[in-house]
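Follow-up to my post from last week.
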Amino acid sequence: MFNSSFDAVVPMLCVTLAALAAMGAEAFRARDEKMPIGGLGIIGLVGAGVACALLWNRNTSSFGVIVADNFGLFVTMVLVIVGILTIMFSSQVLEVDNLPRGEYYALLLFGIAGMMMMATANDLLVVFISLEILSLAVYVLTGIRRDDPRSTEAAFKYFLLGAFSSAFFLYGIAFTYGLTGSTRLDRIGAFLAAQSMSDNPLILVALGLLLVGFAFKISAVPFHMWTPDAYEGAPAIVTGFMSTGVKAAAFAAFARVFLSAFEPFSQQWVPVIWVLAAATMILGTVVGVAQSNLKRMLAYSSIAHGGYLLVGLVAANQIGKAAILFYLLAYAITNLAAFGVIAMLASSNDENEELRDYKGLWHTHPALAAMMTVCLLSLGGLPPTVGFVGKWYIFSAAVSSGYYGLAVIGMLTSVVSVFFYLRVVVMMYMSEREGPEPVRPRIARMGMVALTLSVILIFYLGILPTRVLDYAAESIATIF
Amino acid sequence: MDGWLGVLIMLVLGVGFAAVMIGLSVLLGPKNPTPEKLAPYECGMPAVGDARERHSVKFYLVAMIFLLFDIEIAFLYPWAVALRDLGWPGLMQIVTFFMILSVGYLYVWRKGALDWAPAARARNALRRGPRKAA
Amino acid sequence: MDLRFAVQLGIIGLTFFMLINASAVLVLAERKIMGFMQQRYGPYLVGPHGMLQPLADIVKLLFKEELRPKAADKWLFNLAPILSVAAAFTAFATVPWGAETTFFGLLDDPVSLGVADLNVGVLVIFAVTSMGVYGIVLAGWASNSKYSLLGGLRASAQMISYELSYATALAAVILLAGSLSVREVVDAQSGYWLGFIPRWYVFLQPVGFIIYVIAGVAETNRAPFDFPEAEQELVAGYNTEYSAVRFALFPQAEYINMATMSAVATDLYLGGWHGPFLEQYGLGWLWFLMKVGLILFTYIWVRWTVPRYRYDQLMNFGWKWLFPAAVINLIVTAALVLYFNA
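User reply:
Got it. Predicted complex:
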């Protein structure tokens, strides 16, 4: 028990310590005292990033249930980036909305620690625990604007449905344990490969229950019902955080569980995920077109992006697996930056998140409008942004595995989605605002820095993706 | 007695005793209820409103904090039995565990979740306010 | 049915009977001691020195009218006292009160004096005593009266708050004995240090013992922690609306709980039935009774000496002093055990 190394948990340990420090600092903070709690969080996250870099290629594991293989480390790295960007965007939001900052940062960091644990978990029970850690943090973050009924409602819906889906997941673990005698992913995989259990209906029940649990977390259709409400009600930056971080972590665990432990059963689950992927892409895009609220529109868009990620999971060849990782990174940066713009433009009493609020943004906030445009184009998958590269690899993986149908659906929905992304762009540049200008807060420098960084990353990864793609390919080479 | 049978017998005896006593009293006691007798007691005055209204959130807070620490205690018992086998590393683990919990404990303490009276909370707020602001 | 099983049933019956009597004796003792401390007689009319007073009380209560407020919840209102009493009796089930005995050669295998010997006895006691709070909180809620509800809520908040310290203090004893079975903990305390100091855990765990006793008083809702029924504020607290036998069952549960608390303290801290002289003749249980009696006397003594705290003082004390003290006590104990074991 004690001879196994602690190495693999160091990244999440850094973040957890930062979270504990944030909580302690908040406890001993006088009421009006300013404390650089966000900076503390960034230090912890940078520490986690350094730890990831040092652990790269070493394939360490702690206690047998946490494995720091390259796959997990890549996702951890994505989470580090998500965390740092979120904290940078958050400073202004906390100021404007007067949110409890100690609690906010502590929850954020605990959430990230949970996500990192989920991305590197090698045991179904650890997956479940980390799922709960991140979910509880995100439930509270969703409702952190306590005096806002929409935020509270969103948190409550999210909590109830999330708890419900956790039960599904737990039942799935119970069935799996009952059938295979282990919760460790490697042992389950070995057991299932050795035994021929395809005629056992219980294994299908276990698969189905686990699938429902994961599908809820990545908001795949038809388990997406909570997504638009929760995303709309939460503060914009929290929405950005949970639509990227939670999705990245859940996808990492999803891919790990299904591609390693349940690989022998791919005959059974691939068709199901095929349908899920197609439904998710279509519904996310089609309903997204009809939205007049920018946050809600992006919520549906993030559902659709979950569908593209599922395509990578269905294809599951070497390109497909690497493409999932790269797409997660691309989507995380782009989506977070888009929500960051919304968060920065929101004032304390009006969120300014209707589409018409963005009319003529070019005239008042040219820099923000330009960067928002880049984000939206990247979400739509237009070159030379990172979104294009990500989609390219996903679809080419689908084609090379022979899933032409999925590739066609994906491309068609991408084209449709470009329509609603461009609609926002058109509003920002080409229409004049009728009526009074909405009240906008002062834009904080920290947020602009974060936004600039994101845009640089979007272009860098869009034009010169090879290096990071190599990392992604290297990541999946060691496992699966 | 070995095993759980004794516990079960004791439980049955306890329930039986209480039920028999109540049954006896129902048989032997007089029955002449009046509306006044059947009203809840409020110092002799007619009852005002219903008793089941919202009560202080403090009770919920205590219940939640209790749950956290009670789980910790459920964790302590097997540890206490096995300590001699676990040795010093076992102690270090539980100390680490307590350290993490104590951050949360300090947090609820400083936030006033453990202060029951409003006066104590106000006093704490006063004490914390000006001192640090300087 | 073989003889051994019959004897064991007999022991259970005896334990049950003694518990019922314990509550009667305790009522009388409490009133007598109270009278003594307040320089008056206490009950003295019924029987010699008023010794039959509890019997007279229960007969009187049997013939009283049962009242239930119209707005009360019928089922829960009846269930609450039953729950309280059942939890009180069951909690005593895993408390052994004497060494294993063959009854002077009557049986081939020795039987244990006690209802049940479980390898997780301490956990069972802990679990069942905390079930007792259901009876009280249900009584408070079912009555649909403001005093009752407040009493019930206070009781539950108080009991769960002190349960933490109580359980943490017990964990230190478990640590010393390395077992969750009450009988094994007791037997680990036999013998003497230096030939004359009994190896009782109270000498190793003085802080733990004090914490346990304080928390025990609060757990049984006794003065100075009798907030659930604080007369001056809440009339009678959770049992305001109860009358006749249903009312009598609550104090009965309380007195049995007191007996359980004292018995557990005796077993875990005071060496149970171990003591000089009597043990050799198979009469260790007399030691047990004496020790329990001593603690019970202290209970009553404290009640009539210390005034009631304020509710916020109670919560402050429980959460900010008792619980940290119990945790530190536990960690220090663990470190010392490891140090002296190595």
